[in-house]
Specification:
With 342 residues, the chain is α+β, with helices and mostly antiparallel strands. It has 2 domains: 129 residues, no CATH class; 185 residues, Transferase(Phosphotransferase), domain 1, CATH 1.10.510.10.
Amino acid sequence: MKHNASNSSNAKACAKQALQMQAQQMLPILTALFLSLNYSEISHQRISQQSNNNNNENDYQGLTRAQHPQFGRVMIKWQLTAATNQNLAGLTHEIGILKSINNLSANQKRFQDSLFAIAPPILAYETLRVKVLDQFSQLTILTMPYYPSGSLATQLNVRNHSSLNFQRKHHFMVQSAHLIATLHSAGWLHNDIKPSNILLDDFLPNHADDSCIKADLLLTDFALAECLNAPTLASPAGTPAYLAPERWQSQSATVQSDIYAFGIMMVEILTGKRPFQISVNSNDKLKAWAIQHCQQPIPTLPLEYSHYQCIINKALAKRVERRYQNMKQILLDLESIDRSWL
């Protein structure tokens, strides 16, 4: 067992070193390209690699922060794909979903009670042919606003969570639930609900009517999103810490799997910790996560949050039929909590 773990660690170290070497060749080319497109103050934040099993070629994804004369401070999400690889689940897929969501959210006749926006606006997108790593590749670029307040995950880290009061935590849960409910009403499953995929936008004006939810949270990262009526992801796809039991059993994504992920996030918002954890030394992390989600009991909240326990129990029910059937039911329960608690 120790030998297998050692081999796995060595393989990861080699892959990381190889990616760093490839990045040293790719990033200067991308920087020059972004400069030619009128972006400045370019700062590459993240780069990752994904193997394509169909043709043994690699896709590269990255996030780059920059300044633009028209858009101001922006975040560029990009994907570099081998010219022979038509990756339908890539950034082009996400751009299409974002366009659909933003168009539907803007249709006030259909969404009278929705947030003004549930996802960041698309500022620009394009596809270019570039030569990188001695081969021609397709570069897809998606430009969105940069949100300096970061994501909900930033608010839940060890340093910041202790300063959150009851009202702020409740506010985060209600607004997140509104976002997900509106997304489902628009006909989409997110499939990767978690704090790092909820952005804080502190610069949208408040509604004049205080009864409306203030639109200062936005959903992001729709790479795994699917049409609600025709889900196709049967294998466990998403972030293991938030993945519903049925997803580990190769069942398709549903509204209930998004609800389960929201339940995990509720516990995290309230307590600052995810309800399920695995050992960093686990030899088979996916199996360890599956055991946690499928076999471990629903967590009991600390006494000061006991009024949320019924909601947690129904959101994290192991069996789909015992779980909330839609996000609107969760919203009703959240909004019915006695204000004296807050």
